[in-house]
Amino acid sequence: MKQIGRWLGSTALLVGTPLAAQEVPLGPATAVHPADFAVVNSVRELPDGRVFVADPMALVFVLIDADLQRADTVGSEGEGPDEYRQPDAVWPLPGDSTLLVDLGNARLTAVGPDGGFGGTAPMTLGGGAAGAPPAVVIPGGVDGDGRIHFAGMPEMTAAGPSDSVTVLRLTRDGAPETVARVKTTSYTSNTSGSADNRSVDIRPVPLSATDVWAASGDGSLFVARAGERRVERIGPDGSTVRGAAVEMAPVPIRRAEMEEWAADRRTAGGGIGIQITEVNGRRSMSMQRGGGPDPDLDGFTWPDAKAPWVANSGSVDGDGRFWVRRSRPAGEAALYDVFGADGNHLSAVRFPSDRVLVGFGADALYAVHVDPFDLKVLERYPLPDLR
Question: Least crowded by CB within 10 Å, which of 67, 164, 260, 313?
């Protein structure tokens, strides 16, 4: 908790190399937690095998024993120093500490291995009544030095939000630095009304081409570039290596793909809503995951084919390999492409039906089984041999 505590204590196909033909099946689970969750998007395995899990929809934060059998509730709901309002995600900090993302209180909290709460920091940087909007620190990765990587906010243009953002990294003194720029969701914008009473309807384009990124323990950033169908790794010193472009068959979007997109969105708890208000010169922010009715699928503009990889599906295992979920036709089991430090494709790992990756341990990976009632069961699997 030491280094992060300093900050927390302060305020068409591309022609290229074909993907490896080898698909490695994920073996049988070695441990299954007996209770279910509403939503699990991340886990944090401690050095002794215990696992922190945050469930933003059930509003629980638990520490599960190394056998995945017993779960003890950590903290409680509220706004106090040992409380949270919507525990959304967990990330490893150096040593045996954990970063808890508390959306409900819009803050980040360092948690010790015994479940004790340490320093906190707001999930905003900069901004002010007369300044630019604040940066919103929603972690997308934490490296081995405890530096948080997060996506900046889209720039607003006359046509709506931009379709690219910067990936930022918090330095040791808490200042953000730009690491990369990535393609994000595309948007449509429709304006109606008169000059005196104008309405602008801005909507995302679901399944549009997006770059997928993840931070590695050594401070590198992996980016799966949707347009080039290749992976690049940006080192801590800014140097970049790029793997060979890969061939990927496009996945046409039919009604089944639209409905599966909506189901996957529910599985993840929905999107994160951010509201910034200003009253008498004082600015405040609130965040929440989920809520609201299912989206009207016919109200969106859809591309002809899916993005090559599933948005926000990237992660890095303990051996420094980049995993990213490949887009597949609706109903097919998850398949994760695995890339080495040089950005080249190593293999693909086929998951059992209705399982998705949520994190890694020292020599294991964690997945959730989504049952027919959309409840989530946490499972541990041995890492497959990818040599």
Answer: 67
Kind of pairing between the strands at 345-350 and 23-25: parallel
- Confirm whether 191 is domain-assigned: yes
What's at 360, amino acid-wise?
F
Distance (Å, whole) CA 243 – CA 340: 9
pTM of whole model > 0.85? yes
Q: Which residue has the higher pLDDT, 10 or 381?
A: 381
Residues 6+ apart with CB under 8 A from 331: 256, 260
Q: Is residue 387 part of a domain?
A: no
Is 361 contained in some domain?
Answer: yes
Whether residue 365 has pLDDT greater than 60: yes
The answer to which of 17-21, 190-194, 376-380 has the lowest mean pLDDT is 17-21
Domain count, the chain: 1
Nearest Cα to Cα of residue 225 among 307, 284, 302, 305: 307
State the DSSP string of 2-47.
HHHHHHHT---PPP-EEPPS-EEEP---SEE-SS-BS----EEE-T
Q: What letter would DSSP give residue 152?
A: P
Q: Is the pLDDT of residue 10 over 70?
A: no
Query: Is the pLDDT score of 195 beyond 50?
Result: yes
Helix ranges restricted to H, the chain:
2-8, 255-267
Residue 117 lies in a domain: yes
Cβ atoms within 10 Å of 193's Cβ, excluding its own: 9
Look up the domain containing 320 and give its range.
2-11+13-382
pLDDT in tens, 309-364: 999 999 999 999 999 999 999 999 999 999 999 999 999 999 999 999 999 999 99
Residue that the structure tokens 């490896």 belong to: 20
Q: List CB contacts of 172: < 8 A, sequence separation 6 or more.
A: 3, 6, 7, 145, 147
d(CA 87, CA 100): 7
SS3 of residue 228 by DSSP: coil
Task: Over range 245-261, report the average pLDDT.
Answer: 96
Closest to 204 in 3D by CA, of 334, 94, 84, 302: 302
Whose CA is closest to 213, among 141, 274, 285?
141
